[in-house]
Design goal:
Pfam families: His_Phos_1 (PF00300), NUDIX (PF00293). This is NUDIX hydrolase. The protein is of the alpha/beta class and 316 residues long. It has 9 helices and 13 strands. Strands 1, 2, 3, 4, 5, 6 and 7 form a 7-stranded mixed β-sheet that branches. Strands 10-9-11-8-12-13 form a 6-stranded mixed β-sheet, sandwiched between helices. Strand 9, helix 5 and strand 10 form a beta-alpha-beta unit. The chain is globular and about 65 Å long.
Length: 316
């Protein structure tokens, strides 16, 4: 049985003079044109690797959008034995970077999608391109995310004698918080809202601090506040939908199912993805998200017009 080599990459896109363009990379070692991609570091999540590899290969900082089809193809492992490379892909919008080339790439070309289709050297790379074109026609490329986060692992209640709202993360939870920070960075989160409980604050605070963002804490997102009334927590999600900014909301196992339920009625029921997306939301609500899990909802539109076009569940 061959081993699996996990990798990740992106299709950076833009509109120029009314045309959809994508960024291809040229690798002189193979003299081929393909997408920016690379292998995962140990313990790295694919979404984090996709952003890192894009920066390393193109000099561009990107924010991930909707996921695209993955690719699998045979390669040789480091020992020369048979292996399968599995590459996860996302659409991506450029948010910064110098464009300086530093890593195995000698040229980055922004081209229209027809030129990209002809220039790509591997048929498997056209599957992602066609999915990107379909997403653009469905007006899903300009999506924005809300990342729902269940707080990381905390000191067990039985070992804590103080106010439960002040219960801190344990060593595993602190490691999860670091991983959560990396995931939120991959999706370009610019607004962070959290339950006022210590274990929630500590889960998303590393990200807020690292990116110079204000961390907004809300008692209504705590277990205690939610038990008194669900209205305040629901209002927090509605405000995020009105703003339409890339956001993260951190709360608790008993609270999140109700908040996710607000989005189930907003799923776009496309023939290809609608039922799958709805099922992901139902499962996360019914089975309860894991501690430290991030559920990324990709939305288009704002306010009452906001619709969910895809969902990703990410364990840290």
């Amino acid at each position: 049985m061959s081993s699996v080599i996990p990798a990740a990459g992106t299709l950076p896109w833009r509109r120029r003079d009314g045309r959809l363009e994508v960024a291809l990379v040229h690798r002189p070692k193979y003299d081929d044109w393909s997408w920016a991609k690379g292998k995962l570091d140990p313990g790295e999540h694919p979404c984090v690797a996709a952003v890192r590899e894009t920066l390393e290969e193109t000099g561009l900082v990107v924010r991930l959008g909707v996921p695209l089809p993955s690719a699998e193809y045979p390669v040789l492992d480091p020992t020369g034995g048979p292996a399968t490379k599995q590459v996860h892909y996302w659409s991506a919008r450029v948010t910064g970077g110098t464009g300086a080339l530093e890593h195995e790439i000698d040229e980055v070309a922004w081209v229209d999608v027809r030129t990209a289709h002809d220039r790509l050297d591997y048929a498997r790379d056209r599957e992602q391109l066609l999915a990107l074109i379909r997403a653009e026609r469905a007006d899903e490329l300009r999506s924005w995310p809300i990342a729902f986060v269940r707080h990381a692992k905390a000191t067990p209640r039985g070992r804590w004698s103080g106010d439960d709202r002040r219960r801190p993360l344990d060593a595993v939870g602190r490691s999860q918080a670091s991983a959560v920070s990396a995931v939120l960075g991959a999706y370009g989160v610019t607004r962070v809202v959290s339950s006022s409980s210590t274990r929630c604050v500590a889960t998303v605070e590393p990200y807020a601090v690292a990116h110079g963002l204000r961390l907004r804490t809300r008692d209504v997102l705590s277990e205690e506040g939610f038990a008194e009334s669900e209205v305040g927590a629901v209002a927090q999600v509605r405000r995020l939908l009105e703003r339409g900014d890339p956001a993260a909301l951190c709360s608790h196992g008993p609270v999140l199912p109700t908040l996710l339920g607000l989005l189930q009625a907003r799923v776009v029921h496309s023939p290809e993805r609608g039922e799958v997306v709805a099922e992901h939301l139902r499962a996360a609500a019914d089975e309860s998200m894991h501690k430290g899990e991030v559920l990324v909802c990709h939305l288009v539109g704002r306010g009452e017009d906001a619709r969910v076009v895809d969902v990703e569940r990410i364990d840290t």
